[in-house]
Design brief:
Layout lengths: L7 H8 L1 H11 L4 H20 L9 E4 L3 E5 L13 E6 L12 E5 L9 H14 L3 E2 L11 E4 L6 E2 L2 E2 L1 H16 L2 H9 L14 E12 L6 E13 L4 E11 L7 H9 L3 E4 L2 H12 L7 E4 L7 H5 L6 H7 L10 H12 L2 E2 L2 E2 H12 L7 E4 L4
Parallel strand pairs: 9-12, 9-16, 12-13, 13-16
Antiparallel strand pairs: 1-2, 2-3, 3-4, 4-6, 5-6, 7-8, 9-10, 10-11, 14-15
Length: about 375
């Protein structure tokens, strides 16, 4: 009988050939698993930035090269040109790779030729990270781009009821928290280097935009502001580009409004932007800071951006608009999260123009001769 020539395992595999083929097809590039993990990594970047309270950091970047690498970095962590220092997460979701089960949280550093303070910085921060579960680079890897990392063992998240995704994300976040603890050391090392200053466009082409959002309790005249977020960003007029974050003020739930700081943050802005300015944010803020009523407010909800025409949406809520341009929405719906989400949305381009540029264009058409300060921001509706 032929059964003596094939093992039980071989027969089982042949019997499941169709199932195995389907599973392997799911692993193929741009199919199933790789596509879902790309989406997961995009979400992870925003989740980590919010979890670490680093919403003023640059947009997370994902690079596909021998796996997927997610980069998070402060706008001040810039070296020469586009070279940066970053916190990163690497994962190669390929079951045929020997390191498939070894995603890593890593510190990304440029070589000493670009970052002279690199080795001194590593010497200072390495003991702290090693105690936090990180591993030094392999001895044969000279001047590595990722000199220290922490592996996330996937096997630990296999359970009888399925893969523990929440536990996996928690482990990644814990690694990033450890790295975030050394942020002051990275900042000090960069500040000591004369070439670390970010080169911005000419001062005359920059505008400061205050993106504002509020949360409140109660209705009508009895409304009480419970949260406030003011995010000042630099907007380069000629290039139509949001360059970076200049500063911020947050009053979070349970905190007391610092009127002086909130006022100072708004006064630095050439424009202030909100997503429901006219009926929600402007009258609410005026109760606490009466002088803001005389400022010129722009409403990104109904202020001149033709959302329905540009995006083909029925709802103009912040969540819907972000989803239509491929951005993940924070979902937590706090003033801080919504202000940063609005900033991300307004920085997007459609038909060659940013949404913020379109909003400012509309304001110039409708309000020629108004004072310099304008407000952009507000609660998502």
């Amino acid at each position: 009988m032929a059964e003596n020539f094939l093992s039980k395992r071989a027969l089982e595999i042949l019997n499941r050939a169709g199932e195995i083929k389907s599973e392997m097809e799911y692993y193929r590039q741009d199919r199933g698993l790789p596509r879902e993990i790309r989406n997961f990594m995009r979400w992870l970047g925003e989740y980590l930035r919010f979890e670490l309270k680093r919403e003023d950091w640059e947009e997370p970047q994902m690079v596909a090269d021998d796996g997927l690498t997610l980069y998070l970095y402060s706008p001040t962590w810039q070296l020469q040109g586009e070279k940066r220092v970053a916190l990163s997460f690497w994962w190669r979701p390929d079951p045929s790779a020997s390191d498939f089960d070894c995603p890593c949280v890593m510190l990304y550093l440029q070589p000493e030729s670009l970052f002279p303070a690199r080795n001194a910085l590593l010497k200072e921060l390495r003991p702290t990270l090693i105690r936090g579960g990180f591993t030094d680079h392999a001895p044969y890897d000279i001047d590595p781009a990722f000199p220290i990392w922490k592996g996330i063992e996937i096997d630990k998240f296999h359970t009888e009821s399925g893969f523990d995704l929440d536990g996996f994300v928690s482990a990644i976040a814990d690694g990033f928290r450890r790295l975030a603890e050394i942020e002051p050391l990275i900042g000090d090392a960069l500040l000591a280097m004369p070439q670390t200053a970010i080169t911005l466009p000419s001062e005359r082409t920059l505008k400061t935009i205050a993106i504002l959002d509020t949360e409140w309790a109660g209705t009508g005249g009895s409304r009480k502001m419970t949260e406030l977020a003011i995010l000042n960003v630099a907007y380069e007029v000629e290039g139509d580009e949001v360059v970076g974050v200049l500063g911020a003020y947050y009053m979070e739930l349970g905190q007391i409004l610092d009127e002086a700081k909130a006022r100072a943050t708004l006064e630095r802005a050439d424009f202030i932007v909100a997503h429901n300015a006219t009926t929600a944010d402007k009258p609410l803020i005026a109760r606490y800071l009466p002088e803001t009523e005389k400022m010129n407010w722009l409403c990104s909800l109904r202020g001149g951006v033709p959302w329905k025409e540009l995006l083909g949406v029925q709802s103009e809520s912040l969540e819907t608009l972000m989803g239509s341009v491929g951005l993940s929405y924070a979902q937590v719906h706090t003033a801080r999260a919504d202000a940063h989400d609005l900033k991300r949305l307004l920085a997007q381009r459609r038909n060659g123009r940013t949404f913020l540029g379109r909003l400012l264009d509309a304001s110039r058409v409708e309000a020629v001769g108004l004072p310099a300060q304008v407000a952009v921001g507000g609660s998502s509706t």
